[in-house]
Amino acid sequence: MIYAFGDCKLDITRRELRRSGDLCSVEPQVFDLLVFLVENRDRVVGRDELIDHVWGGRVISDATLSSRISAARHAVGDSGEAQAMLRTLPRRGFRFVADVAVVGSIGEPAASRFARPNQTIRFCATSDGVNLAYACSGQGPLLIKTANWLNHLEHDWVSPVFRDIFVRLSAEFQLLRYDERGTGLSDWDVADISFRAFVDDLEAVVAAAGADRFALLGLSQGAAVAVDFAARHPDRVSHLVLWGGFARGRARRDSPDEADRSEAYLTLMRQGWGKRNSAFRRMFASLYLPDGKPEHIDWFTDLQQVATSPDNAVRVRKAIDEIDVSALLPRITAPTLILHSRDEAVVPIEEARFVAAQIPNAHFVSLDSSNHLVLSHEAEWERAIEAIIAFLRST
């Protein structure tokens, strides 16, 4: 869906705002605020309703709300003095008052057929006193997504990489996600960043949510965390889904090439974290999302700036490289689905096959993609999502 007003076009599907044809940089919360006000332009939207939709009901200050309203006005060429498009009605709320035309949609992905639900963000504490943020969305059987390398509950919720996955899964299940220690909305200043600490994070979130029996979804590094939990708590895991995952980190694969790549990656990360013109950004694009669009690469660069510090990113990455849960694989008793991109460069498909061979009766799906995580504009995306849903519905 594309809304046109003034010299602006607001593309909901692509999550783009353009003025006079030029792409504008807009923060995710500001974009969501604009969309909600434009879609409800026939009425006044109250302060609490706006906060509930954009911030998921979190407590925010009036200054935060005012800054986002100001940023939204600036993005569309309006101002607090003129209020020609976005008007503030004292003690009542806000209304988008410009004339709006709906001019169609472009390349609408399958997930856009499903309404994006609200997510509710809560906090809990680990055994070593780290505060973790976790979010719930949707209704139905509980599906817990383990944290991967970099997460930010709010940023991921609207990202072009994850949003369609989360919307689709939330239409079928109650989806629970969390930011691991050192990242996102969770505590950054932490003493212990290690694989065992990552597993403890999952344990804390499960306890806080009061979850008894549930399905686990592990993406990339999160697959190893899911494997560890499933091996130690076989009675609590109904299904196990591993997408783009591995059992052995780069330092544990008995490959000199992998070790060299790991060190090169860390060096570029330290030098180029969060920089749009860095060698690290170019390397990420070529490895993780070689068939991604500019918006996907821009999202990752933006994620770096909000998800964690450069030092924490390196600490997390080092912990990931040392992962080895291969000895736990034969102990998995839960039905297991493994999905992996055939031509991806981050985690060789041989690693996924190794995992599939070690887990009893695991079902393996090879995806025709070069991206680490299949993107919603790819033909294989729908196949992957349907395979996950069908698998999780099975008994």
Structure description:
The structure is a single chain. The protein has about 400 residues and is α/β, with parallel strands linked by helices. It folds into two domains: about 1-105, Arc Repressor Mutant, subunit A (Orthogonal Bundle), CATH 1.10.10; about 110-395, Alpha/Beta hydrolase fold, catalytic domain (Rossmann fold, 3-Layer(aba) Sandwich). It is built from 13 helices and 15 strands. It has helices at about 30-40, 45-55, 60-75, 155, 165-170, 195-210, 220-230, 255-270, 280-285, 295-305, 310-320, 350-360, 380-395, and strands spanning about 1-5, 10, 15-20, 20-25, 85-90, 95, 100-105, 120-125, 130-135, 140-145, 175-180, 215-220, 235-245, 335-340, 365. The strands form three sheets. An eight-stranded mixed sheet has the order 8-9-11-10-12-13-14-15, sandwiched between helices. It has a five-stranded antiparallel sheet with strand order 4-3-2-1-7, with helices on one face. Helix 1 packs across helix 3 (about 60-75) and helix 6 (about 195-210) crosses helix 7. It is globular. About 45% of the residues are buried.
Secondary-structure topology with pairs:
Elements: E1 2-5, E2 8-11, E3 16-19, E4 22-24, H1 28-39, H2 47-54, H3 62-75, E5 86-89, E6 93-96, E7 101-104, E8 119-125, E9 131-137, E10 142-145, H4 153-157, H5 163-170, E11 174-178, H6 195-209, E12 214-219, H7 222-232, E13 237-243, H8 256-272, H9 279-287, H10 294-307, H11 310-321, E14 336-341, H12 349-358, E15 363-367, H13 379-393
Parallel strand pairs: 10-11, 10-12, 12-13, 13-14, 14-15
Antiparallel strand pairs: 1-2, 1-7, 2-3, 3-4, 5-6, 8-9, 9-11
Helix pairs in contact: 1-3, 6-7, 8-9, 8-11
